[in-house]
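Quick one, tokens below:
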């Protein structure tokens, strides 16, 4: 590509250069993310399009960033870790996501599984996320404006469920909507005391794994216009 053209394509995105992205991938790898597909999808997903332009120079730092409405785009490490946990036992067909937010985790998931069903309670966040996914031509996602505590019963069961906000308890509806062998990745707790959990629907009952301390915004109640 001619240098001028290259310059135009990258104008204004400064730190969003390929090198900055590579550095993030290297860091995730060093922090223990080992699923090559997950790393590859994060490498090619333009996180700077999921934050405000004023913050785009920080888009490839491994941190959560504000997206308005008191919400944050998840930290890349957490997106990678949760995706990896979902996929640990093999490919997934139907995945339910609670907390669309910016749509970044949604975009990553949509490139790793067959179909994503994503629930968000804040309408304006959902609308923006929808636009971004269309722009990126990621079309295997269906959105619902509603309360994640209820899951999305009409389309259940799901092979995987991921919750990107911390719940005081594991929502019963989400357990009910897991297919046999299905996996639920969810932060549980409140305030400073939060643990990431992996819950699997076994032949009889559920198994639970506690994966360590995390920091998420709370899973709230009810949809918000
Ligand atoms: N994965 C998102 C994280 C967004 S933060 C991203 O990377 O951008 C958590 C999101 O969960 C917020 O958008 C918040 O509005 C949403 N949320 C909180 N409680 C909810 C509920 N009960 N139902 C659906 N979404 C909820």
């Amino acid at each position: 590509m001619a240098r001028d053209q290259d310059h135009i394509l990258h104008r204004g995105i400064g730190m969003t250069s390929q090198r900055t992205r590579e550095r993030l991938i290297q860091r995730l790898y060093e922090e223990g993310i080992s699923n090559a597909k997950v790393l590859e999808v994060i490498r090619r997903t333009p996180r700077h399009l999921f934050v405000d332009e004023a913050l785009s120079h920080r888009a490839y730092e491994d941190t959560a960033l504000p997206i308005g409405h008191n919400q944050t785009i998840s930290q890349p490490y957490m997106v990678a870790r949760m995706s990896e946990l979902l996929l640990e036992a093999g490919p997934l067909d139907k995945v339910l996501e609670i907390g669309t937010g910016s749509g970044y985790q949604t975009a990553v998931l949509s490139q790793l599984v067959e179909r994503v069903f994503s629930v968000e309670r804040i309408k304006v966040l959902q609308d923006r996320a929808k636009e971004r996914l269309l722009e990126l031509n990621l079309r295997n996602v269906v959105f619902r404006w509603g309360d994640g505590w209820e899951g999305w019963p009409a389309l259940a069961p799901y092979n995987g469920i991921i919750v990107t906000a911390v719940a005081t308890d594991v929502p019963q509806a989400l357990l009910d909507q897991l297919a046999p062998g299905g996996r639920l990745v969810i932060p549980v707790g409140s305030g400073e005391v939060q643990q990431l959990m992996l819950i699997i629907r076994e032949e009889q009952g559920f198994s639970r794994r506690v994966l360590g301390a995390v920091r998420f915004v709370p899973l709230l109640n009810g949809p918000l216009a």
